[in-house]
Amino acid sequence: MLQLVKRCPGYVAGYKAYCQEAFDNNVIYFMPTNPLDIDDNWFLRTKAWYDKKESGLIEGQSASFHYWAVDDDKFVGEFQLRTEFTEQVMTGIGSIGYAVRVSEWGKGYGTEILRQGLQIAMEHNMEKVLLNINENNAASIRVCEKLGGKLLDKIEAYNKDEGHHLMRRYWIYL
Ligand SMILES: CC(C)(COP(=O)(O)OP(=O)(O)OC[C@H]1O[C@@H](n2cnc3c(N)ncnc32)[C@H](O)[C@@H]1OP(=O)(O)O)[C@@H](O)C(=O)NCCC(=O)NCCS
Questions:
Q1: How far is the CA of 45 from the centre of ligand 1 (A)?
Q2: In the chain, what are the domains?
Q3: CA of 108 to the centre of ligand 1 (A)
C-alpha cells in the first residue's frame, strides 16, 4: 500500500536509486537530488536545511513540506507541498511537486501520490493548490485533470532543466 512518509534515514538508499533513475533517464520535469551527492552523511548534512524549509525560514520561499512515497519497502517517488502562494510558486514551481520512479511509471502511483498529497494540503488548511505543468508533460496533465484540476491559463515559463516552455497552471480546489 502506498504511503507518504516524512524523509527518514531508512529510505535513503531507495531515494538514491530513484534519483539515479531520474538522472539516467534525463527526467526534466522534476529533477531530484544528484545521486552523486547522496553519501553516508547526506541525510544528516541536509536535515537542518529541510527543517528550515518546513518552518518557512528561508528568505523569499514558501514553507515547504517534503515526503517520500513508499510501497512497503519499495521506494516509489516523492511529494512536496508549498503552502504559500509566493511569486515563485505562482509563476514557477507551483504548490506541488511530485514524481514517480521511472521504473514504476504507469502503475497508478502518480495518481495515488497526488491524491494523498491533496489530503495533506487539506490538513494544512489549504483551500486550493496550484499545479504548474509543462504543456508537453502529458502524464502529469492527465493525473492533475483526473484529480479535479481546473485549467487557469497557460503562460510562458523558463527554468534551467525545461528551458523556455509553455506552462499550464491548474487549480485544484480542496
Ligand atoms: C507525472 C508522473 C508523476 C505520473 O506518474 P505515474 O505513476 O506514471 O502516473 P499514473 O500511472 O497514476 O497515471 C498516469 C496517467 O497518465 C497517462 N499518460 C501517461 N503518458 C501519457 C501520454 N504520453 N499521453 C497521455 N496520457 C498519458 C496514463 O495513461 C495515466 O492515465 P490513466 O490512469 O487514465 O490511464 C510521472 O510520469 C513522473 O514522475 N514524471 C516525471 C516527473 C514529473 O513530471 N512530475 C510532475 C511535474 S508537474
A1: 32
A2: 2-128+138-148 (3.40.630.30)
A3: 8
What is the per-residue pLDDT across 104-150, written as a single tens digit (0 to 9) for each?
Answer: 999 999 999 999 999 999 999 999 999 999 999 999 999 999 999 99
Q: Which three cell numbers stand for residue 9?
A: 534515514
Q: Which atom of ligand 1 is nearest to the CA of 101?
A: 39
Task: Give residue ranges with CB within 6 A of ligand 1.
Answer: 27, 29-30, 98-100, 105-111, 133, 137-140, 142-143
* Beta strands per DSSP E along 7-118: 64-71, 74-82, 96-100
| DSSP code per residue over 98-111 | EEE-GGGTTSSHHH
The one-character DSSP state at 165 is: E
CA of 29 to the centre of ligand 1 (A): 12
Residues 42 and 4: their CA atoms lie apart, in Å, by 21
Quote the pTM value.
0.97
Gap from CA of 141 to ligand 1 centroid (Å): 8
Cell of 113: 501520490
pLDDT tens per residue across span 20-39:
999 999 999 998 999 999 99
